[in-house]
Amino acid sequence: MDRAEVAAHWEANADTWTRHSRAGYDVYRDALNTPAFLSILPPIEGLAGLDVGCGEGSNTRKLAERGARMCAVDIAPTFIQHAQAREAAEPLGIDFQVGDGMALPFADASFDFATSFMALMDMPDQHLAFREVARVLRPGGFFQFSILHPCFVPPHRRNLRDADGQPRAVEVARYFDGTDGEVESWWFGSVPADERERVAPFRVPRFHRTLSAWVDFVVAAGLIIEKFAEPRADIETAQAEPEVADTRVAPIFLHMRVRKPAAP
């Protein structure tokens, strides 16, 4: 699947995705993934940052609220329109642009740091994406990203539950099967039944790679790994939001921070 087909899928998802995520249906993001990501983020106040694959901009806004001067790109124009509308209504100084993470529309060494929240596994050529981020980072800058955990969310994952419905194990398969645009259809888990009857599910192209391939992308781009994290819901969060309780059995997300070497 090429980048134009990927863009078409995300453009088709964008309106519903924006509405559902802003309604609070993306529980994994709001209850676990984004808070865990921000908890390991270095100080960014006063820094120039780039958010790659920003979607409707909610996470980009959290970075701007920490004092960063943010630019953000997404391949789907409708996502950018929603992000720009929110920015116009509640300005944080963010520059949202339509842009491809595999061909970033910025000069070399433009940013002090970059982020990507759950977008890289949806790009056809992650090698190019890492090279592009490395190119636009200043020496000494960092790139922090989250992806689906390649070991525990390969093309097949199924939660196994006990008699009380509590997660007890995770079944995974096809870990070594690299996928090139295999389309998965799903809703956010907390979307009500009546809403599911009104709208089509998301259709998301996946480009699954092994963990060793992700490390190879980092190394080939000349970046250095400095932080690895696998978010797990604590007991209180799992009780409050049962949807994320399976992350106490095995992780769904992988967070990594890598850094461009400083100039000699």
What does this molecule look like?
Helix content is 33%, strand content 27%. The chain has 264 residues and is α/β, with parallel strands linked by helices. It has a single domain (3-149, 210-259), classed as Rossmann fold. A seven-stranded mixed sheet has the order 3-2-1-4-5-11-10, with helices on both faces. A two-stranded antiparallel sheet has the order 6-7. Strands 8-9 form a two-stranded antiparallel ribbon. The longest helix is centred in the N-terminal third of the chain and has 20 residues, at 3-22. The radius of gyration is 18 Å and the shape is globular. The N and C termini lie far apart (40 Å).
The CATH homologous superfamily is named Vaccinia Virus protein VP39
Spell the H/E element sequence.
HHEHEHEEHEEEEHEHEHE
Low-confidence stretches: none
Q: Which fold name fills CATH's third level, the topology?
A: Rossmann fold
Condensed summary:
It is built from eight helices and eleven strands. By secondary structure, it is an alpha/beta fold. The chain is globular and about 60 Å long.
